[in-house]
Amino acid sequence: MKKIVITGGAGFIGSHVVRLFVTKYPEYHIYNLDALTYAGNLENLVDIENKPNYTFIKGDITDETFIADLFDKHQFDGVIHLAAESHVDRSIEDPLAFVKTNVFGTVHLLNAAKKQWLNNPEGKRFYHISTDEVYGSLGAEGLFTETTAYDPNSPYSASKASSDHFVRAYGETYDLPFVITNCSNNYGPNHFPEKLIPLFINNIINNKPLPVYGDGNYTRDWLFVVDHARAIDLVFHHGKNHDTYNIGGFNEWKNIDLVRLLCSIMDGKLGRAAGKSAELITYVKDRPGHDLRYAIDASKINKELGWKPSVTFEQGLEITVNWYLNNSEWLQHVTSGAYASYYEKQYL
Ligand code: NAD
Ligand code: TYD
């Protein structure tokens, strides 16, 4: 039986990856290693928590001894590394927290994997999940490819770029078997409501202002989280060793256009008059160092592994909005406590 540790498996993307692997591969044992920070939530996984091939381990990847002991104990065959501090606005407030988890944490995992696999790398794989934000910002034209130079602008993207470099360096220096993917903005169920789409859904439900940064003319390429998890499954099993793949939604939206679309969907769902939710749009101070545009050329993963998104943006948004409307308890739980003070500091 293959033993695979998925880090950050209680978070947004991680929980979808854990669910896919636990249900699709009963022959694997899946260990979900997560510190349960503000962004980690075991409520995301209640449907699979009793499966015989699933174990949750509460632990912090910044704890070097804990990580070394854990790898000694379990002798994992694969690592799918998603644990991270993931929110750009938080990275602007506290860059060091991002260095600790995203850089130090990644290097502790690399050291532990290297020690286990040095003499038997056959069938082993360290899969590092990264972001397109490492490439910096595009102008009005062009797309990020796997050969675009790294040019990170935020403390978040700088920490992810650094961790990507460490993974590649361990591949070159110690022949550690690895693969890296750089993905565009995800959306979907279980997304913590500090990021644009879930924050705005939550605010529309609660009739709160929708804080659009700057003029709203910033562009992101949105991908449904389940399609990202499908890509991760493909790359983990069939991606080329020591290679990187870009993953994107072929789905660019200016923030303000996306917000208007979301408002009109929510008007329909909440039985409000057309245009009512859009009245909540409020232009606020811009994010410092705000990247103008991200857009991915995902043709390599499409050609080599046959991956493409399975749902349209309209379908994905419909699933997402319905999920938030049907899971008000989840929203209540994650927006109480520490979230409330973050929100107050960020927006009021
Ligand atoms: P998230 O913030 O929702 O979840 C992160 C998870 O990591 C949480 O469960 C948290 O508890 C855990 N974690 C944080 N610090 C930890 C630590 N020190 N030790 C152990 N666990 C820790 O993030 P997400 O949006 O699901 O992103 C997952 C990964 O995908 C990240 O590496 C992120 O950089 C990358 N990524 C995200 C997006 C996106 O749009 N969300 C896009 C591309 C890549
Ligand atoms: P976000 O969801 O934080 O993802 P990222 O910064 O990683 O792309 O933000 C998506 C876009 O939405 C980005 O251009 C910033 C913008 N934004 C707002 O305009 N208002 C907000 O309150 C937030 C959180 C984001």
UniProtKB/TrEMBL annotation:
<feature type="domain" description="NAD(P)-binding">
    <location>
        <begin position="6"/>
        <end position="319"/>
    </location>
</feature>
<protein>
    <recommendedName>
        <fullName>dTDP-glucose 4,6-dehydratase</fullName>
        <ecNumber>4.2.1.46</ecNumber>
    </recommendedName>
</protein>
<dbReference type="Pfam" id="PF16363">
    <property type="entry name" value="GDP_Man_Dehyd"/>
</dbReference>
<keyword id="KW-0520">NAD</keyword>
<dbReference type="InterPro" id="IPR016040">
    <property type="entry name" value="NAD(P)-bd_dom"/>
</dbReference>
<dbReference type="InterPro" id="IPR036291">
    <property type="entry name" value="NAD(P)-bd_dom_sf"/>
</dbReference>
<keyword id="KW-0456">Lyase</keyword>
<dbReference type="InterPro" id="IPR005888">
    <property type="entry name" value="dTDP_Gluc_deHydtase"/>
</dbReference>
<comment type="similarity">
    <text>Belongs to the NAD(P)-dependent epimerase/dehydratase family. dTDP-glucose dehydratase subfamily.</text>
</comment>
<dbReference type="GO" id="GO:0008460">
    <property type="term" value="F:dTDP-glucose 4,6-dehydratase activity"/>
</dbReference>
<dbReference type="GO" id="GO:0009225">
    <property type="term" value="P:nucleotide-sugar metabolic process"/>
</dbReference>
